[in-house]
Every structure is written in structure tokens, then in C-alpha cells.
Amino acid sequence: MYIDVKNILHELNEEIELLKSKVSHEPKLISLVVEPDPSTLSYLKTQKKTTKKYGVNLEIIESHNLEEDLNYYNEDKSVDGIFVSRPLPKRYSELDIARNINPKKDVEGVSFFNIGSMYYEEELFVPCTAEAVVKIIEENTKIQGKNVVVVGRSTTVGKPVAILLLKRGRDATVTVAHSKTIDLNEITQKADILVVAIGRANYIKQNFVKEGATIIDVGINVVDGKIVGDVSSEVVEKCEVTPVPGGVGSVTSLILIRNVFRAAINNSI
Amino acid sequence: MYIDVKNILHELNEEIELLKSKVSHEPKLISLVVEPDPSTLSYLKTQKKTTKKYGVNLEIIESHNLEEDLNYYNEDKSVDGIFVSRPLPKRYSELDIARNINPKKDVEGVSFFNIGSMYYEEELFVPCTAEAVVKIIEENTKIQGKNVVVVGRSTTVGKPVAILLLKRGRDATVTVAHSKTIDLNEITQKADILVVAIGRANYIKQNFVKEGATIIDVGINVVDGKIVGDVSSEVVEKCEVTPVPGGVGSVTSLILIRNVFRAAINNSI
Fold first, then answer.
1. HAMAP family annotated for this entry (chains A, B) (predicted)?
2. What's the pLDDT tens digit per position in A5-48?
3. Any binding-site annotation on B246?
4. Chain A hits for B94, Cβ within 8 Å
5. How do residues B65-109 score in pLDDT, each as one tens digit?
6. Which of A220, B28, B35, B233 has its CA 20 to 30 A from that of B55?
């Protein structure tokens, strides 16, 4: 069975409407792009449409000096939120963003301050994809005492999902596996809840999963011009699986928009 | 078999001597104590002896306003390192320290900046006990591809050990279990490396472990006036186990001292 995220989207839409009614200005979101490639620019075009629909003014700015530009927009009062487009060129690392972005404008939740808060179990802005994953799990199954396996150890999915699910009150037992894990399928087979962020099309087959598990597919891969996830389609016969597209990605987009409105409210106080 | 940490202590001693030769002043370490109880004061007395032995001037200061005092010593040029004694009274949380302590003086590695760096795989000051655990594991067994189970999800042991062992190059597959984990022994039995930080005397018995596993006992419990760990003594018949006392705690103490010298060097630049 596929997991339907429309309830979550509906709730997020309502939350955004409520926040919108409290902001007197059109929120301004800056996307810094370093050495953009065509696919990044095409992705940003889509994002421009989404933000426009929700009444957010997205400005795409080509950056030639990331630290300098972050410092500039960190201070610019007219800017509510900032994010940096990925992929980054090799001379930059995630650390350069995490260290320098103003935590109040860090709508993607990647700054030291926001990561630190999450680590100490206070959720302010947390990495959007990780929040989407946790929201979908909470909506669809009990978490306490469950064995969760997260495949992937990135700073935007694997690590934050693990930290968020370990939080007191959620109380999952969490395993983080990754590309260097030996006999991955033996580990994933034991998962009551499986979060997959590998980045390899249709990698997770039926022999990787336990009957009845809840599976969150974070993968976005292009195969023959079609977008597919990391979980192969026949897995839906055994498990509840989020669709790709239309699952985690849709929820993530709305979380980003909601965060921009939250930042705008804080900015106008 | 018990694991002998004397090689690690020897290496740390050498590292400290080397750092010492580069510092021209006696490093000053401030311990802030809020509402001290007798056991905290007695522990600090021991610490005072250790620091003295290594040529560190430890000043114990009773704090009536933690944020104010942190701000004061954060700026005080004569102070190289700061730590806050635990337990904290209920009106304070770990967040109050993490948010306010100057990362350059944060010799325990608990500040947002240092936690954030660790999260992004850059190790500056990391939580001392977690570094001790990782050092002992690295000295005694291969980590890559191993299944590590960490029992406990604290901000000073469980979470940082997990993050440090997931780091690229170390590449462990890591499970974090805790007090809400169901059938804990089924999970710990699968561990090639088991890190135990539960805080319950002799809790881990033979039926919790796999033959030949490497076990790091972080527990410090007092039973009939004697200090014992979380791992029961008969486990040494099946596994390699760190002793308590004389294991993780001894390494942790030296890491703290080393960090004070590192901070002193940075402070004198």
C-alpha cells in the first residue's frame, strides 16, 4: 500500500494560512546559488512557482563569495529566510553554511544553532526533509519502542532523523546504516520502520523488508526521464510505502514554506 | 578479559607534555558549581588534585546566576577553560550551558558550536567521555562495518558516540538503544561493539552479549561503598570489557586536561 500524505499537506496548508494572517509583509526568501548548473536552475524555477503560490517572494542570487553573501543577507532586515542551493562546488562544504548562516533566517535548519537545539531536544528549525520524514511516520504508526532503521547518514536526512526519533517522548530505537554497512538487508529486514535515503533507484527490494513495515522513501532518482525513489515498486505488496513523487518531497516543500512564514513573524517582532 | 587502557593514558600523557611545552602560562580552568551537594564537592576535590598534578589551576566557583557567570568568564582573558559541574538544579538544562558557553573555552565539548562541528564531521572539542569511548574502541578493534550498539541516548555519551562512530572513515553501523527499548538484550546480543551508559549497577549480564564482543562500560555506580560499572563482572569471561574504575573514566580525565592545554594554546595566540 502507498502512504497517503494528503492529511499532512492539508494540516501544513492550514498552519501556513494561520501564520500568513499574522504577517503584514510578503516574506522574502533568498536562495544563494554558487556556480549553478542547468538542473539546479530548472529546479529553482519550479520552486519559484511554489513560493509564489503561497505568497513568498523568492529571489535567486548567484553567489561568488558565499561567506560574504551570507553575512550580507544575514543582516539585511528585508530578508526573512535564506537557503543555499545544492550541490555546492567542491571548495565549499556544508560547514561553511552551518557556521555562517543567521539561525533566525535558517529556514532549512542546518546552522550550528539549530542543529545544536535539535541535539538538546529543542526543535526550532530542523532540517526540512527530516521533519517531513518524522511527520509522516508519526501520522502513520506508533513510534515508541519500535525498531527504526535509517539508511543513509547525511546531515540533512540520516543524522537528524535519528536524533529526532530518539527524542524523549518519541523513544524509537534507532539504527543508522549506510554505504559501508555489511549485509544491509539483514539489518533492514528487522526494521518496523525503515527510512531510505540512499540515492540509488529502486535499490530496496522485497528481500530487504519485513512484512507490514512502514517505509519512508526519501530517494529522488531520474530513470529514463521519470522520477523514482530508492524503494522498488513491488515492495508496496508487503509494506506501507511513501510514493515518489508525491511523498516526502511534497511534505518537505510545504515545511520550507511554513518555516519562511515563521521566520517572517520573528523578523517582524 | 579486561581491556587495558594504559597505552592510551601513556599517549595522552605524552600529548599533554608536548602541549605543555608550548604554553607559557599555567592554564586556568573554571568550574562553575550551582547549588553544590556534598558528593559534587568531594568529586571536585579529587579533580583539583588531578589538575594540580598536570599543572592546571582549577578554580571552583559557586554560581548563583549561571548565564551571567558564563558570560563573565567567557570574556575573562585570564581564563582558558570553563566547565559546569553536574548535576544541575532543575531550573537549568544542558541547553543553558550549550547556548552560552564560549566554544573556545568549552573544554567539555558541549556548546552548540562544538556539537555542530562534530555533527558536520569536524572534531574540535567533542564531549570528553564520548571521545574516550571512541579512543578505546579504536585502540582495541576494527570499527569499519561493525555493528555497534550504544545503550543510552544522553547528550554526553549516547548521541556523540553514535555521531563519532558514523563519521566517514570510521564507518560503523550504529544502533542507539535506551530505557524505552523493548527486548534490549536481543539488540545488544547482536553487537560486535557494545557501549553501555545506563547508570544501573551490573545491569549487563552474559545473556546480553555476543561471545568475543568489545564492551565499553561507561557506568559509574556506587554499591556498598564500592564503585562498579553497568556491566556485570562475569561478562569478562565471554568478552573484552573495560574495567570500572580504571577504564573510560581515567581516559576521560586526561582528555579534559589535554583540552585545557589546547584551549590555553589557542588563548595565548
1. THF_DHG_CYH
2. 999 999 999 999 999 999 999 999 999 999 888 888 888 888 89
3. no
4. 120
5. 999 999 999 999 999 999 999 889 999 999 999 999 999 999 999
6. B35
Full set of structural domains in chain A with CATH: 25-104 (3.40.50.10860), 128-249 (3.40.50.720)
pLDDT at A269 over 80: no
Residues of A in contact with B126 (CB under 8 A): none
ipTM strictly over 0.90?
Answer: yes
pLDDT value for A87: 87
How far is B232 from A176, CA to CA, in rounded Å?
Answer: 28
Spatial separation of the C-alpha atoms in residues B1 and B82, rounded to whole Å = 37
Q: Which residues 108-147 of chain B have a CB within 8 Å of chain A?
A: 111-113, 115-117, 119-120, 122, 144-145, 147
Which pLDDT does position B37 carry in this prediction? Answer: 84
Q: Are B73 and B82 in contact (CB under 8 A)?
A: yes
The cell for B200 is 544501573
DSSP conformation class of A237:
G
Q: Which residue of A111, A113, A120, A125 to mutate against B (max B Cβ within 10 Å)?
A: A120
User: Is B175 in Cβ contact with A174 (below 8 Å)?
Assistant: yes
What value does the mean pLDDT take over residues A169-173?
A: 98
Instruction: Specify the pLDDT at position B203.
Output: 97
